[in-house]
Inverse folding.
């Protein structure tokens, strides 16, 4: 009988060792991610962005947790009139840095979560926590084939709505 228990224990240990490890949660390097200009290349259609093209989000780090945010776009074309809104962001998960809460006006707060990102920092996908809004960002314009792949990634990560691809600026402002 002790041999059977020993064999069972050895089998359990072997199975545990063979079980793949849980994937590590996505983390974001706050210094590089929350700084500079990101081009908005795809998004959930919303009334607030109707007619907006050449969208950008500019992040400026204030300290370890706070980030100044400027979201802007152009009305009437990539060289059209600028429309912008400023916000105060707070990283809600320090160390992981995937979740950003941005307060735009006295009573307007949005939460964003980075769902996926390029290891080289070229693009990222963010969404609202409920996955009802999604945004595709990059440091430079990307070919439609890459946007299609980012769209497929967003869908695999739980977003099921429409995505529009407004014209982007040739280079970040």
């Amino acid at each position: 009988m002790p041999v059977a228990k020993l064999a069972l224990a050895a089998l359990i240990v072997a199975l545990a060792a063979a079980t793949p490890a849980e994937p590590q949660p996505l983390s974001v390097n706050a210094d590089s991610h929350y700084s500079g200009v990101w081009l908005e290349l795809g998004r959930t259609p919303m009334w607030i962005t109707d007619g907006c093209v050449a969208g950008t989000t500019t992040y400026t780090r204030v300290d370890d947790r706070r980030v100044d945010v400027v979201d802007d776009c152009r009305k009437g074309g990539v060289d059209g009139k600028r429309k912008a809104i400023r916000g105060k962001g707070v990283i809600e998960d320090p160390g992981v840095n995937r979740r950003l809460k941005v307060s735009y006006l006295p009573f307007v707060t949005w939460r964003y979560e980075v769902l996926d990102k390029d290891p080289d920092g070229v693009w990222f996908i963010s969404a609202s926590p409920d996955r009802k809004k999604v945004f595709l960002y990059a440091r430079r314009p990307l070919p439609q084939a890459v946007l299609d792949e980012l769209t497929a990634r967003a869908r695999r990560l739980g977003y099921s709505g429409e995505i529009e691809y407004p014209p982007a600026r040739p280079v970040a402002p």
User: Anything to note?
Assistant: The two ends are 75 Å apart (CA to CA). The helical segments are 2-18, 30-33, 144-156.
